[in-house]
Amino acid sequence: MSTTAPLVRDSRTMLRRNLLHARRYPSMTLQVALIPVFLLLLFVYVFGSALGAGIGHGGDRTAYLAYVVPGILLMTAGTGTVPTAVAVCTDMAEGVVARFRTMAISRPSILVGHVVGSVIQTVINLVLVTAVALAIGFRPDASPVEWLAAGGLLGLFVFALTWLSVGLGLVSRTPEGASNAPLPFSFLLPFVSSTFVPVDSMPSWIRWFAEYQPFTTVIETLRGLLTGTGIGHNGWMAVAWSVGIAALGFVWSLRLFDRDVH
C-alpha cells in the first residue's frame, strides 16, 4: 500500500497535466482524429465502388463501408501514437522530467500519466470515427456482447500501442523525430494489412506477412465481431499480439526511462 498509493495519486496528477496540455493545444489531437475520417470518406466515396467490385461486393459502397470500417478504426489507434511520442520526447528534451526528479513524486507516474491520457484521447477519436461511419451508412451486425468484445479488443490494442509509443518518444532526440517514429504503426502496417483489400489479393511474397502481422489479426477479429463474418484463428492471435506488444512496450519504456533519469 505504501508503494501503490503514491503511484496512483501522482499518476492522477500527471494525467490531469496531460489532459490540460491536450485541451490547450488541440491542433495535434484534432489532426489525429481528422486523418482517419478523411481516409474513411476518401476510400468509401472515391475508391469504394471500384474496390468493392474488386473484392466481390459488386461496386456497392455500403458493403465496402462495412468492410473498411474495422481497418479505419485500427488506423485511428495507430495515429494516436504520434502525440504520445511527441509529448514524451518534449518532456525529456525540455528538462521537465529533470525538474520532476527534484520533487517527491513517483517516477513511473510520469509515464503512466502519458499512457492513460493518450488512451482516453484515442478512445474519444475512435468514438468520433465510429459516429462518422454510422452517419454515412455503416450498419453493424453485432450483439451487445460482440460490441463489448470489440471495444475491449480495441482498448487493449490502443493500450499496447501507447506503451510502445512511449518508448519511441524516449529514444527520439527531438520532437520532430518523435513525430515520425510511429509512422509504421500509423500508416505502413495498416496499409500492408486487410484494411482496404483482402490479403488474398496481394502478391505471395507479401501475403504471408500481411496475414499474420498484428494489424490484420485485430482487423479481422473486429470485422468478424461487427459484421458477423468468421474470425477463425485471428481472435487468439489478436489478443496475443496485443498483450505481447503491451508487455514489450511497458518493459522497454521503463528501462529507457530509468536509464535516462539516472
Summarize the structure.
The protein is an all-alpha fold. Helices cover 79% and strands 0% of the residues. The two termini are 25 Å apart.
Provide keyphrases for this structure.
single chain; 262 residues; mainly alpha
The description of the largest β-sheet is: none
Strand content: under 5%
Q: On the 0-100 scale, what is the average pLDDT?
A: 87
Strands, count: 0
Distance between the termini: 25 Å
What value does the Rg take, in angstroms? 19 Å
Structural class: mainly alpha
Helix content: over 70%
Low-confidence residue ranges: none
Task: Give the SSE string.
Answer: HHHHHHHHHHHHH
Global morphology: elongated
Alpha plus pi helix count:
13
Question: Layout of SSEs?
Answer:
Blueprint: H1 4-24, H2 26-45, H3 48-54, H4 61-79, H5 81-93, H6 96-101, H7 108-135, H8 144-171, H9 175-180, H10 183-191, H11 204-212, H12 214-227, H13 234-261
Helix pairs in contact: 1-7, 2-4, 2-7, 3-4, 4-7, 4-8, 4-10, 4-12, 5-7, 5-8, 7-8, 8-12, 8-13, 12-13
